[in-house]
Design a protein that fits this description.
Keywords: FAD, Flavoprotein, Oxidoreductase, Proline metabolism. This protein is an alpha/beta fold. It is built from 23 helices and 14 strands. The strands form 4 sheets. Strands 1-4-9-10-11-12-13-14 form an 8-stranded parallel β-barrel, surrounded by 8 helices. A two-stranded antiparallel sheet has the order 2-3.
Length: 668
């Protein structure tokens, strides 16, 4: 049904997103007729078997192709004040447009009312004229094009100036607050109910003799409720105080299937239009019911509390530090220690306890996981029967996860299946998939699922990347823990470090619901957290290099902050990591901070632009958020406008108004 289309791709040179992977492969045809695929702008795909068969022909196309770029490298101005380096990839009209857009973003009235203004303008001007105006202004500046065919000229030009893409299909639903709240509340509560009780197991325990669940008053396994993992109508609209992140609201399983197709198409676009150097962004809340992520997140945090209880009661010394906060891998507890402790409360000969101990994951350094977490990416897993632990007081097996119906079990398996399809597609096409971070009440589950897919797919290179938000107090601990798991379970670790997108919402929600604020108290504290976390990643990279071991860590510094970028560059030099090592890359949004991205790419660093694309009318919510975000970073806007004006004056004074960008750089 599908037809084949050969696209060239550049030779492999690294295992990380910062590098250039192997020869291009065909893409797999998305559901639907070929004609539909062409009209939508998405390339059809072939199967992974066809991929192997086409490699020789593709290699020949590469040898005879005309895509070869130069190997030019420019010195880097670390002050990021070089206007020519920043904008020589732009036409004079694009520079003027950028200046106009940033000037409009400086107007509080226009920014606060931008969606209303756009809707009124569309109604008055008509769709055709409105679309033309948007393409000449905001849309043209912040969005690459309508589909993966139309974005190719932008990607080609970026590449010729040393910059690679992260593709994101940025279509968003324009929901009212009322509709968003309704969807979120309905999809965040189990059909069995949502009880915020002190006893997370509701008095249920497993009888050691017959293996059946029995009722009873029950003692709270871990004292205290966890309100952050339960929906609250006040914050059900997850767009509240969020301007720099896209939000998905669950409607039904069919919508999740459609989102799966969209993400697959983004992966296809990466394979077909970026010469193998790009990435595709994915959000897990688009692929399943949020209730499931909430409940799994609560299980993870209760497991940490359970481990804190065990280690607090264990007389034997262990190697854990004060910052371990229940992360099991950091406790270095030997299986014998765990058995000795459990023996005080349980009969180790009982079948449920024996099964629990058999499922514990450990190595020579001690426990890694209490539960067989690899099982959560098994599409046949029954969640309700997985998270059972012995109560340290009664010895009974109790559940950490409650309120999950058979229908919801099926929904969880569907979500895992969708993620697995995307990961398999990424592997088949030899492209990278970056899982975005989300709110803290989802993030434990998102990170755990992502880590398990890393363990499954990142065996030869870093295909799957996780995202860490450094405005969170626990960012350093989370990254350190995940780095340690990757090291001990021998898989490639990929991470994108960001400051974070949900700061104001997280603070407001924590204050309203009465749980500790998970965020750092200040911008300076967040910078310190970011730099500390990045330093730990680089330290581990250096350690591998010094020991002559292959590097298995890839990091993206996704930041618009000059000081953070400079810090990363200085640290690389300090510990002897060069851009050619291809283990660290940088990323900024399309249309923002070009004065950082392009000088980095042109001086030999691995540099990325986050590339949104989609039909004009369907990316209006995205454009609205970009305007809001730019309003909040006036200092950066002032610098951007100053450099744009400098380059504009230079071209006018030198008679270069008709300047045509022609790059001769090759991305590293």
């Amino acid at each position: 049904m599908a037809f084949l289309r050969v696209v060239t791709r550049w030779p492999a040179s690294s295992k990380f997103a910062c590098a250039t992977p192997g020869l291009h492969r065909h893409a797999l045809d998305p559901p639907g007729a070929a004609g539909t695929a062409l009209r939508s702008g998405f390339l059809p795909l072939t199967t992974s078997s066809a991929v192997a068969k086409s490699s020789a022909a593709t290699a020949e196309a590469l040898r005879g192709g005309s895509q070869t770029l130069g190997s030019r490298r420019d010195p880097l101005d670390a002050t990021f004040d070089d206007a020519h380096a920043a904008y020589k990839s732009k036409t004079t009209w694009e520079i003027l447009r950028a200046y106009i857009v940033y000037t409009l973003c400086s107007s509080n009235y226009l920014v606060e009312n931008n969606m209303k203004i756009m809707k009124v303008a569309k109604a008055i001007l008509g769709e055709k004229i409105f679309t033309a105006i948007m393409k000449s202004t905001f849309y043209g500046h912040f969005v690459a094009g309508e589909d993966q065919i139309r974005i190719r000229p932008t990607l080609e030009r970026l590449r010729s100036f040393g910059v690679k893409p992260i593709l994101d299909y940025s279509v968003e639903e324009d929901l009212s607050q009322e509709e968003a709240e309704k969807r979120e509340v309905e999809s965040s509560v189990s059909e069995l109910g949502d009880e915020k009780v002190q006893d997370p197991v509701h008095g249920l325990y497993m009888d050691g003799e017959d293996g059946h669940w029995k009722g009873g008053a029950g003692r709270s396994l871990v004292e205290g409720t966890m309100p952050q993992f339960h929906v609250d109508k006040t914050f059900a609209d997850r767009r509240y105080k969020v301007s720099s992140a896209r939000t998905y609201f669950y409607l039904n399983e069919a919508t999740c299937e459609r989102n799966l197709e969209i993400f697959q198409q983004s992966l296809q676009a990466v394979a077909g239009a970026t010469y193998g150097t790009g990435l595709a962004a994915v959000k897990l809340t688009a692929l399943g019911r949020p209730q499931l992520l909430l409940q799994l997140s609560e299980v993870i945090m209760r497991t940490r509390q359970y481990m804190t209880e065990i280690t607090a009661l264990t007389a034997q010394a262990n190697k854990s530090s004060p910052d371990d906060k229940g992360n099991i891998i950091g406790k270095h507890i030997q299986p014998e220690e765990l058995q000795q402790k459990l023996q005080q409360a349980c009969k180790l000969s009982e079948a449920p306890v024996k099964k629990f101990l058999q499922n514990v994951t450990y190595d020579q350094e001690g426990l890694i996981h209490l539960f067989p977490w690899s099982g959560i990416i098994d599409e046949n897993l029954e969640l309700s029967e997985t998270f059972l632990v012995p109560d340290m007081k009664t010895g009974k097996m109790v559940r950490l996860l409650t309120q999950l119906s058979s229908k919801e079990e099926e929904m969880f398996r569907n979500m895992i299946r969708r993620i697995n399809v995307l990961a398999q597609t990424a592997e088949d096409l030899d492209v990278r998939m970056m899982v975005d971070a989300e709110q803290t009440y989802f993030q434990p589950a998102i990170s755990r699922i992502t880590l398990e897919f890393m363990r499954k797919y990142n065996t030869k290179k870093a295909l799957i990347f996780n995202t860490y938000q450094c405005y969170l107090k626990d960012a350093f601990n989370e990254v350190s823990t995940d780095l340690e798991q990757a090291k001990r379970q021998n898989f490639y670790f990929g991470a994108k470090l960001v400051r974070g997108a949900y700061l104001e919402q997280e603070r407001a929600r924590a204050a309203a619901l009465g749980y500790p604020d998970p965020t750092n108290p200040s911008f300076e504290a967040t910078s310190e957290s970011y730099h500390r976390t990045l330093t730990e990643c680089l330290r581990r990279i250096k350690d591998l290099k010094d020991k002559g071991k292959p590097n298995m860590i890839g990091i993206m510094v996704a930041s618009h902050n000059e000081d953070t970028v400079r810090f990363a560059i200085e640290k690389m030099k300090e510990i002897g990591i060069s851009p050619e090592d291809k283990v660290l890359c940088f990323g900024q949004l399309l249309g923002m901070c070009d004065y950082i991205t392009f000088p980095l790419g042109q001086s030999g660093y691995s540099a990325y632009k986050y590339i949104p694309y989609g039909p004009v009318n369907e990316v209006l919510p995205y454009l609205s958020r970009r305007a809001q975000e730019n309003k909040g970073i006036l200092k950066k806007i002032k610098k951007e406008k100053r450099l744009l004006l400098r380059e504009l004056i230079y071209r006018i004074s030198r008679g270069k108004i008709m300047y045509t960008p022609k790059g001769d750089y090759t991305p590293i």
